[in-house]
Amino acid sequence: MIRPARRERAEPVDRRVEHATVLHASTHRAPVPPLRRLLSVALWTVVVVGGLAYGTSLAVPLWFQAHEQRLLVVTSGSMAPKFDAGDAVVMRRITDASQLKVGQVVSFWPLGSETLVTHRIVELRSMPVLTQDETTGTMVAPGGAGSAPEMRQYIITKGDANPVPDPNATPYTRVNGVILGVHHGWGWVLQWAGSATGRAVMLVPPLVGLATLEVLSMSDTRRRARRAKKSEERRLDALLLG
Q1: What are phi and psi of 150, to 5 degrees?
Q2: Which residues contact 35 (CB under 8 A, 6 or more apart)?
Q3: pLDDT tens digits for 27-46?
Q4: Between helices 196-241 and 186-194, what is the axis angle to 10°?
Q5: What angle do CA 148, 154, 155 make, to 5 degrees?
Q6: Given Cys at both, which of 43, 53, 177, 225 links 91, Cβ 3.0 to 4.6 Å?
Q7: Contact 48/210 with Cβ under 8 angstroms?
């Protein structure tokens, strides 16, 4: 009696492994090209540097204001060598004549001028307050010829680099403040940072950099979406063929 030959039973094939392999390939992100990575680093550097520069230009004056001080830009060399044009001096306001002393450097508005001057006090004087009599043209006390004149504190000033004192005495009420210190070279930087050119240099490149980074990010997103779509199509084809 002849028995039929036994048919070998095929082992089941787990196609899920193949499908998983295809799916894993679809989610794998392609490496970023070196030039693309270098461009991103350069753009972020421009954004950070410009932002820090602009923030510093705003924060430095505010820091001095918070300490009841003010930065003034020196525009002439009349106080050389203590400070020169292009430096910045730190000024603190005064509220009383008793705060003024000989030897101090002060900022003030000379009589008849609205240009701020920074010179050294070489003398303090108490002088009578006089007005011109409209009839005689002479200088008299405000209460009349027989009244005691009101005394007011005046300062005599001189630039360290000038050979003679300033021509007019200045009432202490026109003194803006006392100079506490100097920062050499800060004046040019502060002037440039506050100018239209300086603001444009600090703000325009970072804004352009941010816009470029946004465009690159959108381009990368679309590229990844196209790659994912193609990978999904290949995965579906593999499932159908399997």
Answers
A1: -80, 130
A2: none
A3: 455 567 788 889 889 999 99
A4: 60
A5: 160
A6: 177
A7: no
Token pair for 148: 């005691």
CA nearest neighbour of 102 among 178, 164, 27, 33:
178
Beta strands in the chain (DSSP E): 70-73, 88-92, 105-108, 117-129, 131-132, 139-140, 150-158, 170-171, 175-183
Taking a C-beta distance cutoff of 8 angstroms, is the pair 149, 130 a contact? yes
Residues sharing a CB contact under 8 Å with residue 177, sequence separation 6 or more, in sequence order? 70, 91, 92, 93, 94, 106, 107
Distances from the Cα of 139 to the Cα of 35, 113, 154, 174, angstroms: 81, 22, 17, 21
In this structure, how many other beta carbons lie within 10 angstroms of the beta carbon of residue 227? 15
pTM of the model: 0.67
Amino acid letter, residue 206: P
Is residue 91 left, alpha or beta, with left meaning phi > 0 and alpha meaning psi from -120 to 50? beta
- CA 91 to CA 70: how far, in whole Å? 5
| DSSP per-residue codes, 56-92 | HHHHHHHHHHHTT-EEEE--SSTTTTTS-TT-EEEEE
Cα 56 to its chain centre, rounded Å, is 3
